[in-house]
Amino acid sequence: MKKILAIDAVGCLVDLKGNINKSISKILKKIDNKKIVLTNADNKEKKIFLKNISYESFSLKHKPNKTNPKYYKKFLSKYKLQPNEIIYIEHDIKAVKSARLNGILTHHFDGNIKNFKNFLNSFLNKKQNFPKKNEINFHYYPHHPVVIGASNGKKVNFMPCVWNSGMSYDPFLYGVSVRKERYTNQILKKSRFFSINFLDFKNVNLLRSLGRSSGKLINKTREFKIEYSNGYFSNVPILSKAYLSFECKKKFTKTYGTHTLFVGKVELIHTDNKISNKSILDISKVSPTLYLGADHYVSLNKKTLKNLKKMPFHKSYSAKNIKLIT
Ligand SMILES: Cc1cc2nc3c(=O)[nH]c(=O)nc-3n(C[C@H](O)[C@H](O)[C@H](O)COP(=O)(O)O)c2cc1C
Questions:
Q1: What kind of architecture, by CATH, is found in domain 146-301?
Q2: Which of 50, 265, 283, 289 has the most CB atoms lying inside 10 A of its own CB?
Q3: Which residues have a Cβ under 8 Å from the Cβ of 284 and sit 6 or more positions away?
């Protein structure tokens, strides 16, 4: 069901003489949601305030006024509405608070039409929902998965991890977020070093296999015939197929809800000869793997590459204050 748009009469849709606010009226005409005008007006006031309004209206004739939360309770009950079925525009801040106390999403209209429009755009044209427990949302992907390599001295293990990020330039820190149940989590808790490996899209099947099997039960390197070498530091397995690998020394470990964030200091960087000396990836040679969630993978469309290097920086972006990495 489309949300109902409730709107204050005097102060929003009309003035004290009942003249229509033309900007608001124009916007409302373009919206086909049901509209209800909320007012305190008694019969005499209605004749003035509502004389130019064609939308249906609701009033308790000052018994009580909108500043009393009971007003909105009665309004919801009359229309058999749940608070999340309406959005509301109100000019009086006390009335705004009393509507909000009833759980009604309310915009405080202070005369700014642009803010009013943006509010409608967000809350009428877009869907809102509060995240539910255990509900997974992948809409914020794609993101590039890395493969964590770790060893406990007896077994070498590799695990894809899409929740990864660079965390600091100097020192060069890289973080991976690993669910507590993973075998990799057990290893990382104990080990001093681990590797982060980036795979080309042509190796996406391997990545998927590593992410849908557990080192708890099998030896992944044998099972998937994984080629790897020992790193410079001890117990750091490096995936041979990776176009880029970091050898990391574990620096920080912190648990956030279901996951543990392991932050490593990048001590050694391995790049294959396809990667030039420039700081950005040459996507004519390497196709980074991106993950869309739920076993869906994608790579970059090279045609979309845009080089904005020549576009001037805004004056607020002073080279004196910000160390620019080119
Ligand atoms: C593309 C992809 C990305 C993943 N990202 C993560 C992640 O960020 N964190 C995590 O804990 N598990 C992630 N997983 C799940 C683990 O890789 C998976 O559970 C794996 O079997 C764990 O292996 P292990 O038990 O040998 O450590 C991902 C899986 C895939 C396929």
A1: Roll (2.30)
A2: 289
A3: 302
Q: Delimit the domains of the chain by residue range.
A: 4-125, 146-301
Tens of pLDDT, residue by residue over 215-255, are: 999 999 999 999 999 999 989 999 999 999 999 999 999 99
Q: Per-residue pLDDT tens for 280-319? A: 898 999 999 999 999 999 999 999 999 998 998 887 876 6
Distance CA 158, CA 185 (A): 11
pLDDT at 126: 87
pLDDT digits (tens, 9 = 90+) for 150-200: 999 999 999 999 999 999 999 999 999 999 999 999 999 999 999 999 999
Superfamily grouping for domain 4-125: HAD superfamily/HAD-like (3.40.50.1000)
Average pLDDT over residues 19-48: 97
Query: DSSP secondary structure string, 239-303?
Result: ETT-SEEEEEEEEEEEEETTEEEEEEEEEEEEE-TTS-SSSS--TTT--B-EEEETTEEE---GG
Is the predicted pLDDT of residue 320 greater than 70, yes or no?
no
pLDDT at 326 over 60: no
Probe residue for ligand 1, chosen from 141, 147, 182, 220 as the CB with the greatest number of ligand atoms within 8 Å:
182
C-alpha span between 188 and 191 (Å, rounded): 5
CB-defined site of ligand 1, < 6 Å? 145, 157, 159-163, 177-179, 182-184, 208, 211, 213-216, 291
189 CA distance to ligand 1 centroid (A)?
A: 16
